[in-house]
Amino acid sequence: MASATEDELEEIKRYEDFTTIDWIQDSILERNRRIRAGKHRWTEIGQTWLVVSIVGVCIGLNAAIISIVTEWLSDIKMGYCADGWWLNEQFCCWEIEGEDETDACDSWHPWSEVGPARWLIYVMCAASFSFVAAHLVRSLAKYAAGSGISEIKCILAGFTMKRFLGFSTLFIKSLTLPLVIASGLSVGKEGPSVHVACCIGFTVAGWFPKFASSQAKIRQVVTAASAAGVAVAFGSPIGGVLFSIEEMSHNFSIKTMWRSFFCALVATFTLSAMNPFRTGKLVLFQVTYDRDWHFFEIIFFVILGVFGGLYGAFVVKFNLQVAAFRRKYLQSHAVAEAVILAVVTAMIGYFNRFLRIDMTESMAILFRECDASTGGGTGDICQASIQWRLANSLLLATIIRTALVVISYGCKVPAGIFVPSMAVGASFGRMVGIMVRATYRAYPQSGIFAYCDPNIPACITPGTYAFLGAAAALSGVMRITVTVVVIMFELTGALTYILPTMIVLLVTKAVGDLLGTNGIADEMIKFNGFPFLEKEDHAYGVDVSAVMRTDLYTVPEKGLRVKDVESLISSTDVKGFPVVSVVASGSDSSLSSSWSEVVTAVEGDGGKPVLLGYIGKTELKFVLDKFRKTAGHLDPETACLFGSPLPPPPPSAPVSASRPTRLASSRVDELVQGIEEEEIPETMFERSDGSEGVELWPWVNQTPMTVSSQLPLEIVMQLFKRMGPRVILVEDYGSLVGLVTVKDVLRFIAMEKPGYHHPSWDERGGLDGLLEELWSVVRGVVNQLGELLGKRWTRR
Predict the structure, then answer these.
(1) Three-state DSSP state, 353
(2) 354-363, 465-474, 749-758, 759-768: least confident range
(3) Which 8-state DSSP code applies to residue 143?
(4) Where would I find the CBS domain in this sequence (predicted)?
(5) Per-residue pLDDT for 103 more than 60?
(6) CA–CA separation, 193 vs 191, rounded Å?
(7) Helices (H) and strands (E) in the chain, counts
(8) d(Cα 471, Cα 418) in Å, to the nearest integer?
(9) Which of 415, 394, 247 is nearest to 341 (CA)?
(10) pLDDT above 70 (res 727)
(11) Cα–Cα distances in angstroms (integers) from residue 220 to residues 151, 161, 339, 475, 676, in the given order
(12) What number of CA atoms fall less than 13 Å from residue 347's CA on the CB side?
């Protein structure tokens, strides 16, 4: 293997911080639990649905509380309610018709009548909220920062990250999320809401021993919770289920889908019963459209799709640059970074109506249909007299919001990217809609508008352009399609707009594929070094022998003492050890005491280690501790036996006969594979009379997953994805030659970069390279124009 640079070695070391779940072993344990359950099977099934119901109710309650607190904190930056300090602006002015008619509300008082003073208070509130949130995250729960979707995808794929789904993370993230949104940072709460929902699912499932002892079952609950998190964030239960299938889950079963659907349904019902906005809506930007679209508008829908693809590529690539800068220079200044970002966002955004208010409120305004009754306040978004001023304001909001999303997403506070991206797309879409409507009003007789009915003044609905632009931007940055279509349909209930939404998202996906962009969640998995195998298959063109680890720590079936095993455990950082036969060396008399050693020596083909099984380090520690506690003392010189006893060979059987089954003993019932630790009888830890040492063979997995060294790497990766073993042993004609894990595969990809690998953003020069390319293009165009003008001037 080629020598690695310092950056590559740093990338490789990141994979050491994760623990892999052995899904095969977990499946064996679960199978034995089902067999022992017997007639109590229906009780366990009922307990599963009870857990899912409790999780759904808790997620709905948590989402309602977060929405109420977020609205109050967002409004408190602008003023207060004289009727009660706990009322936000909407509830304070409940009697006033219209969502934006706050000037006529006597109960709501701004903090000052002086413009600069109001601006200063607005900025100070934003700084205070961001400081408290960042400080709590840094001090009490570091895993509460960020979106959490990338990490949850890895957890559902079979990796363990301690405390990431713990109660402290749940509490701190629920507490700080309203503060972050109210601070005005260009981050959203929908991604963190999924993380919070998964924390609730993990915590509730941990109360029940059935789930706490099964990695597969607790991940089924976490998957269902992720669907409920999206459901309450967008008011879209079916969209939440599709999101858990399309984006979150590595292997999705029908059973998990039904539980996800039920959990999302319960969570949505709970949120609807709470009615946090007192409008009957589950989210603020939920709208309904009763107007149809026209075929000529497909041209403009395609423009929105192209924008979504370009926006996604731009944000993903530049955000990775910002993340690299943050990791290198701002690692120890997380609180200061969050405060500075909030202050800059507030100082800039205060002077733009679409940046000043909360993003969900902004989208509610941008999605709105225009009719004769709309007017006044920010309802002037529908007034034709100021349409070009509005278009300029929306363009400015789109550019500024995009830049703020790039630098804000990833800071050490709870931060999502769903709603900020939708807000950017809504701003751009509304601007396009206003321009199309202005064109129609200026040239109503144009051929392109022939489908418009002259008797209906509202031929163009700018709100639908904002709606489609939001869908395009969300799909562009997350690289999901079907989920977005369903979410948008559930938000509007407009069946007629499914086709335009599909057209926009297909164009967005095509542009993203053309630019070679992955979703930001997948890119952050790679950037952070999370051990995650992609769902897509790639052609590597190498065998597993090029990836496998050959410098192995093995244990022989005989020959080790207790102190040798304990030294091996303490001096290595591996998760387990292959068990091999005793290598034949010396005279035959040294092997005469054990017939199995004679068979092993013959089958070992000249001394090669023959694979007998695999034992985990955790099992070794457990067994030695139990033997020591049972006997009161364990002599360090006691021999350790890893090979199972064999019956003597038949007198007529030659030594070269095929290998006998290594479990053909009267003690086969004492195998403990797939048995809970507390159910292992104490007699297993008592040394029988005449025993040669500590018998460890019952804890040896004598049928580990093995492959040939010539097997293509793609097949081995499929085994990891579909069966989920922690380790795959590589053998050659029965002899152990190496082993491979998921981390080894990821190291190989990071080091060797096989032929399928496309140059990364950093390898293409990053931001500096892009600026150089742009400058070279501009300089070339200027030079060509200069030459062309020079030639024309010479002719004259």
Answers:
(1) helix
(2) 759-768
(3) G
(4) 700-760
(5) no
(6) 5
(7) 28, 13
(8) 10
(9) 415
(10) yes
(11) 16, 17, 38, 26, 21
(12) 7
Residue 211: Cβ-neighbour burial (10 angstroms; 0-12, 13-18, 19+):
buried
- What is the CB neighbour count within 10 angstroms for residue 478? 24
Which amino acid is residue 377, in one-letter code?
G
- pLDDT score, position 194: 92
Instruction: Report the alpha-carbon distance of residue 263 to residue 58 in Å, rounded.
Output: 10
**Could you tell me if 160 and 19 are in contact, meaning their C-beta atoms sit under 8 angstroms apart?**
yes
The confidence band for 770, taking pLDDT boundaries of 50, 70 and 90, is low
Which pLDDT does position 530 carry in this prediction? 78
Is a pLDDT exceeding 70 seen at residue 541? yes
Q: 491 Cβ partners below 8 Å, 6+ apart?
A: 234, 235, 236, 283, 285, 286, 287, 467
Place 311 in a pLDDT band, splitting at 50, 70 and 90.
very high
Q: CA–CA separation, 26 vs 30, rounded Å?
A: 6
CA distances from 501 to 335, 431, 540 (A): 40, 18, 36
Sign of CA dihedral 203, 256, 60, 420: positive
Contact by Cβ (8 Å): 392, 399: no
| Amino acid at residue number 224 | A
Residue 235 corresponds to which amino acid?
G
| Residue whose C-alpha is closest to residue 221's, from 237, 242, 245, 201 | 201
Cα distances (Å, whole numbers) of residue 185 to 55, 189, 224, 248: 29, 11, 29, 26
In angstroms and rounded to an integer, the radius of gyration of the C-alpha atoms of the chain is: 32
Q: Which long-range contacts (CB under 8 A, 24 or more apart) does 157-163 make?
A: 157/250, 157/532, 157/533, 158/20, 158/21, 158/23, 158/215, 158/250, 158/724, 159/18, 159/19, 159/20, 159/21, 159/530, 159/531, 159/532, 160/18, 160/19, 160/20, 160/21, 161/18
Write the secondary structure of 661-730 as one string of H (helix), E (strand) and C (coil).
Answer: CCCCCCCHHHCCCCCCHHHCCHHHHCCCCCCCCEECHHHCECCCCEEECCCEHHHHHHHHHHHCCCCEEE
Query: What is the C-alpha separation between 16 and 298, in angstroms, rounded?
Result: 50
Give the sheet arrangement for strand 728-732, strand by strand: 706-708, 728-732, 735-740
* Pairwise CA distance, residues 222 & 244, whole Å: 10
Alpha-carbon gap, residue 20 to 11, rounded angstroms: 18
Q: Check whether 225 has a pLDDT greater than 90.
A: yes
Residues 6 or more apart in contact with residue 52 via CB below 8 angstroms: 221, 224, 259, 262, 263, 266
What mean pLDDT is predicted for residues 422-434?
93
pTM score: 0.78
* 346-375 average pLDDT score: 78
* Token pair belonging to 314: 């731009």
The mean predicted confidence, pLDDT, of the chain is 77
Q: Give me the pLDDT at residue 107, please.
A: 77
- What band does 558 get if pLDDT is binned at 50, 70 and 90? confident
CA distances from 657 to 592, 653, 660 (A): 18, 7, 8
- Count Cβ atoms below 10 Å from residue 40 Cβ, excluding itself: 10
Task: Tell me the C-alpha distance between 427 and 389, whole Å.
Answer: 13
- Measured torsion, CA atoms of residues 713, 718, 724, 730, in degrees rounded to the nearest 10: -30
Q: What is the pLDDT of residue 607?
A: 56
- Residue given tokens 């999206």 in the structure block: 230
Please tell me which residue, 261 or 449, carries the higher pLDDT value: 261
Of 323, 347, 327, 337, nearest to 135 by C-alpha is: 337
Rounded to an integer, what distance in angstroms lies between the CA atom of residue 159 and that of residue 555? 26
Neighbouring-strand partners of residue 579: 555, 613
Give the per-residue pLDDT at 37: 61
| Residues in CB range of 663: below 8 A, 6 or more apart | 644, 671, 702
